[in-house]
Specification:
With 300 residues, this protein is an alpha/beta fold. It has one domain (2-162, 187-222, 264-282): Rossmann fold (3-Layer(aba) Sandwich), CATH 3.40.50. The chain has helices spanning 12-19, 41-50, 76-97, 129-142, 164-172, 191-207, 226-238, 270-276, 283-294, and strands at 2-7, 26-31, 59-62, 101-106, 148-153, 156-157, 177-181, 185-186, 189-190, 214-217, 224-225, 246-250. It is globular.
Length: 300
């Protein structure tokens, strides 16, 4: 059995990686803060070195992160410990073990200012502590000496955990009209689809040591604003007996937050399609699957 260590096991992505139907001969051990505190770099080294059931891990998927974007502006030490120092420790441990590391990163490493989708080699320029700490993690992994795949993503949603889809359904159930930011553009990412992409890359890197390291972008296909996303959520939810409030688009300036959000979070999929043959499906189709889980199948 080739066992892959997954961090952030109770999060949206970690949950989907655990639920994922892995190829025969592959499996995961998922850990969260109760089993492995990502602020403890010595513990990270010990866990990777120990392996599982007397066998070394075949790879590590570093999905755990400090994702409280606004809180990170004042909790700088924790953000950097979890998002930068932990990946550095995983990189060192994976280099010693001779196994690949898949590091999940974010669109927040960019400043959001360009037109069109961000390419993997575009200049980075994080706007806040969260993005800077995640970029620090990327750089640490790249210089650790291990084989790696850094996968940036954005707007992650699923049927579990805390995310935009679940928030909209909750507040939409008791409010006839919602005001949602309409000047930030991106592509929603179903955690299940991201898990599938990571799993496919991990299996390929384990099976073929000749596969080179690289940085990739993954989200579902298509572009939308947060307000447009909300409208599609309610359009699909209403067909399942869910809420259907109206959505008024507002400017980001009308909804100030401690951390500045990128205006453009669109991610190009050219690298992941070229190197790994992964072509994301439309975000609307991924949303439909999430709503099937949360509400039920669409009414006939």
């Amino acid at each position: 059995m080739k066992t892959i260590l997954v961090t952030g096991g109770k999060g949206q992505l970690g949950t989907e990686l655990t639920r994922y139907t892995w190829p025969e001969g592959y499996g995961v051990v998922a850990v969260d803060i109760d089993e492995l505190d990502l602020r403890d770099t010595a513990a990270i080294m010990r866990v990777v070195e120990a392996g599982h059931d007397g066998q070394p891990f075949a790879a590590v998927i570093s999905a755990g992160a400090y994702t409280a974007v606004d809180k990170a502006e004042t909790d700088v030490v924790t953000s950097w410990a979890v998002n930068a120092m932990a990946p550095a420790a995983f990189g060192e441990a994976c280099a010693k073990a001779g196994i690949p590391l898949l590091q999940v990163s974010t669109d927040y490493v960019f400043d959001g200012a360009r037109e069109g989708a961000w390419e993997v080699d575009d200049a980075v320029g994080p706007l806040g502590v969260y993005g800077a700490s995640k970029l620090g993690g990327e750089l640490a992994v790249k210089t650790a000496g291990c084989r790696y795949a850094i996968v940036r993503t954005a707007w992650v949603v699923s049927a579990h955990g805390n995310n935009f889809v679940k928030t909209m359904l909750r507040v939409g159930a008791t409010n006839p009209t919602l005001r949602v930011v309409d000047d930030q553009h991106g592509s929603p990412t179903a955690a299940a689809d991201l898990a599938d992409a990571l799993a496919r890359i991990a299996v390929r890197m384990i099976a073929d040591p000749a596969i080179a390291s690289g940085t990739y972008h993954f989200s579902n296909a298509g572009a939308v604003t947060w307000a447009g996303f909300a409208r599609e959520i309610f359009a699909q939810a209403s067909g399942r007996g869910g809420p259907s409030p109206s959505v008024d688009g507002i400017a980001s300036s009308e909804y100030p937050t401690p951390a500045t959000r990128p205006t453009n979070s669109l991610l190009s999929h050219s690298a992941i399609e070229r190197d790994h043959g992964i072509v994301p499906r439309r975000w609307q189709d991924a949303l439909s699957d999430i709503l099937d889980d949360l509400i039920g199948k669409k009414n006939a």
